[in-house]
Automatic annotation (TrEMBL):
<dbReference type="InterPro" id="IPR041670">
    <property type="entry name" value="Znf-CCHC_6"/>
</dbReference>
<feature type="domain" description="Zinc knuckle">
    <location>
        <begin position="131"/>
        <end position="156"/>
    </location>
</feature>
<dbReference type="Pfam" id="PF15288">
    <property type="entry name" value="zf-CCHC_6"/>
</dbReference>
<protein>
    <recommendedName>
        <fullName>Zinc knuckle domain-containing protein</fullName>
    </recommendedName>
</protein>
<feature type="region of interest" description="Disordered">
    <location>
        <begin position="97"/>
        <end position="118"/>
    </location>
</feature>
Length: 164
């Protein structure tokens, strides 16, 4: 582990101890341990995700660490602040940081000729990459009712006759 990760690990364990006593009481922590508040597995997951740069927002933190205990919701923002104390997120780009030669807005002229900027007015379909193995069409699979061969396959199953 890097020096930053070791320092973050120490800081995270201290934070967990303080928050566990605050949430559960000192007697409960003495009896059951700080793992009742946040397990060692979650601690290691937070460290791994932080060192890989995956914990930049609360949404990413919730998705990556899987800390689903009821009181975790009120501590996630504090945890993210702790993460950012040790691993600050990159500063957002500003016009001044882009320099005089770079445009502040993305331009399709900067893209390779085979790529164009997506039309932001039209939402992208999550099914665009699907390819049907039955009819060869795109945008669906052979088990989807949109496939022209789907009804024929269902008819063949029900009657036992082949349809050409």
């Amino acid at each position: 582990m890097s020096d930053e990760a070791v320092a973050f690990h120490t800081g995270l364990l201290q934070w967990r101890s303080v928050q566990a006593v605050r949430e559960l009481s000192e007697d409960v922590v003495d009896k059951y341990g700080v793992n009742t508040f946040m397990t060692d597995v979650i601690v290691l997951r937070v460290i791994a995700c932080t060192t890989m740069g995956k914990l930049k927002t609360l949404v990413l933190l919730e998705r990556e660490i899987g800390w689903d205990i009821d009181w975790a919701a009120c501590y996630k923002s504090n945890l993210l602040k702790l993460v950012h104390n040790y691993f600050p997120p990159p500063a957002p780009l500003t016009e001044a940081s882009l320099g005089p030669n770079l445009p502040s807005e993305p331009s399709s002229s900067l893209l390779p000729p085979t790529l164009t900027q997506p039309d932001l007015a039209q939402p992208l379909s999550k099914h665009q990459g699907l390819h049907c193995s039955w009819c060869g069409g795109s945008g669906h699979m052979k088990t989807n009712q949109k496939c022209p061969m789907y009804q024929q396959e269902r008819f063949m199953e029900s009657t036992g006759k082949a349809v050409l």
